[in-house]
């Protein structure tokens, strides 16, 4: 029987990886436990740098992310999840407030990658590769970089100054961005010949149409097209909002069709410009893909709602308005999205008159510039007409890859996919990126010693008063101050990582020595040493008593030998 040894063994927290039902925590795999502890000990730059390791748009995600990490948070079973989203914003804004930029990358790879598309997936892929020393150039079809970040997300969610800073931060890693690119098949083929890899990250910007009679009439507008037109308008950029609604071709009474974030972004934008919008959604409030809190916020701003209703045709009314024939809906069996399928209620048709209809029922990728036939294998896009030497050089990521699903436009997911894509490219170009197998366990709720912790409420975020939101696009959620951020980051249990709390030493019967080193966020960091001469059965109490499940018992074999040797000393090796 092999002898087993107690060691410090950092694990992943559910908010970082997976919850107990295999649902993703943070799709970008941000190291949440460590950035929160950094805030708590006053190391704000360190918190900023931890976030930027996995997410160049952490300042944006700290504002508009749907924060699945909080759903996975262990503390949610105990009282309430930690305020991860708002604390991510706090740490990221430290970099923005201090205009932190990257240090030059010293280890250059002498290999080049071209990226098509400068949305969150394209810029993130470029960022992760440039951090590792690759030469990266991003080609953007429009006149400004950012994709959905620039064209689709309203500035009351994501201020221009913060967005521009995050793009500049990416560029500080020597990422080049060329706008107004003429993206066609010849352009793609040229890039494949000139570079060591090409990444297609063109997003999903081809709108889904309602597919009903009259959906192409003047006055029926696509939601993403409206948002792009609004954000690129010179008057909008000057914050001259008077008369902008008419200039954009939108009337006073607006029907918004859909229940996702684009529908809310449209409705909450036009109400700020003076319109009277109503969101019509064919399912109920619980089936919306947008976060439930959106309904309350939008409603207070003046947006109206009608649920379980949908148009089945549109015609021009004699008044000059658009007449939608609406049908009530009821929910039948679940469809491919897992939500119950809307079914029309017989005899419920009735007319609704509006000035403008803005549709926001989803987008799909537009990949017509890819020549000939192709197939997708993971993140690789294999184009049949390429010769064998070039077939393995093309990749696809972000909404361009997953755009036929129901999660398009989720920036944090695009960032996570971009990181995965960059890793695949790096491996294909010869890098050895195998993660140690011992860093794979997850510190789930039932492994945390909750007796060490007291119940404590979440933070209540201050918001811009509702009456001050109309007629401007000022940011709605107001920032946390440092004192409150430090306090609320302390609610995090730091599941799976050692934070030098000393409980292990108290249980160890003097078999554990504390090192005189400050805490650092390394994945294999340990801050104590085991005295081999003092180890006995009581030392194992240190493992079972660790509040955060940051220890383990391991055999002295090929897998664990190196870790044990690093953490153990004997009396003879101690220098006085």
Low-confidence stretches: none
CATH 4th-level superfamily of the largest domain: FAD/NAD(P)-binding domain
Number of strands: 23
Q: Note the beta-strand portion.
A: 15-25%
Let me know the average pLDDT. Answer: 92
Number of helices: 22
Number of domains: 4
What does this structure look like?
This protein has about 575 residues and is an alpha/beta fold. It has 4 domains: about 15-100 and about 440-490, Orthogonal Bundle (Fumarate Reductase Iron-sulfur Protein, Chain B, domain 2), CATH 1.10.1060; about 110-205 and about 365-430, FAD/NAD(P)-binding domain; about 210-360, 3-Layer(bba) Sandwich (FAD/NAD(P)-binding domain); about 505-575, no CATH class. Strands 4-3-2-5-19 form a 5-stranded parallel sheet, sandwiched between helices. Strands 7-15-8-9-10 form a 5-stranded parallel sheet. Helix 7 links the parallel strand 2 and strand 3 (about 135-140).
Provide a short characterization of the protein structure.
The chain is an alpha/beta fold and 576 residues long. It is built from 22 helices and 23 strands.
Identify the notable features of this structure and list them briefly.
about 575 residues; alpha/beta; Fumarate Reductase Iron-sulfur Protein, Chain B, domain 2; FAD/NAD(P)-binding domain; 4 domains; 5-stranded parallel β-sheet; about 30% helix
